[in-house]
Specification:
Length: 224
């Protein structure tokens, strides 16, 4: 239920995105954004690619960070005497894992954040106001569909694992259980990382476009 709620919560981002889109068109001096214009249509496709790239980037970041935590856990088992055997009084170092995960969560956000900031600026400066308007629209539409899909699919994978481990389809330890565990590994970052991130991503892209709108010209530097 919580995972599905995250997807529908991103609907607020689309509403905000539409409001920001209207504000952008007004500030940029655009009475009409013609979707039949090849430049605008190109902007829509460019905007649709941005959330996909951001989702892939955050998914990969979760995988890299998880691997580092696994390596840190193995290091502690190797270097802390008695930890692997469960000797009384021997404790692990959870701060190392927490510090690693916290640092990685900040570091791995650099690429998605720069994408949300730089793509609208590059599109507006190079291609002009109409292309950037199409980009805002493409980002909002693709972002909400990705958010709904990833949040719901991730929740479904997680529930499938719980359902099988409750004794259905062979129960825990079966081939179905192992397959569901793999699905849950993908489902967790789907519903907890990449899906909810679309909410912020849609708004950030539209806000950046609105901020730079007064400084842009219709054809951009390339004179489209």
């Amino acid at each position: 239920t919580a995972a599905m709620g995250k997807g529908f919560a991103s609907g607020s981002a689309v509403i905000a995105g539409i409001a920001l889109f209207a504000a952008y068109a007004r500030v940029a001096g655009l009475q009409v954004i013609n979707i039949m214009n090849p430049a605008v249509l190109s902007g829509v496709f460019l905007g649709a690619m941005i959330p996909v790239f951001a989702a892939a980037s955050t998914m990969a970041s979760v995988g890299k960070t998880a691997l580092k935590v696994v390596e840190e856990t193995r290091r502690q088992y190797r270097e802390i005497p008695g930890l692997l055997e469960g000797r009384e009084g021997v404790k692990p170092d959870p701060r190392a894992c927490v510090s690693m995960a916290t640092g990685a969560s900040i570091r791995e956000l650099i690429v998605p954040v720069l994408t949300a900031l730089l793509c609208p600026i590059a599109a507006g400066v190079l291609f002009g106001t109409e292309v950037l308007g199409g980009m805002i629209l493409g980002t909002a539409v693709m972002g909400i569909f990705l958010s709904l899909f990833m949040s719901n699919a991730g929740g479904a994978w997680g529930n499938a694992k719980k359902y099988i481990e409750a004794g259905n389809f062979g129960g825990k330890g079966s081939d179905n259980s192992r397959a569901a565990a793999v699905g849950d590994m993908v489902g967790d970052p789907f519903k907890d990382t990449s899906g909810p991130a679309m909410n912020t991503f849609i708004k950030a892209t539209a806000i950046v476009a609105l901020i730079i709108a007064p400084f842009l010209k219709p054809g951009g530097l390339l004179g489209l």
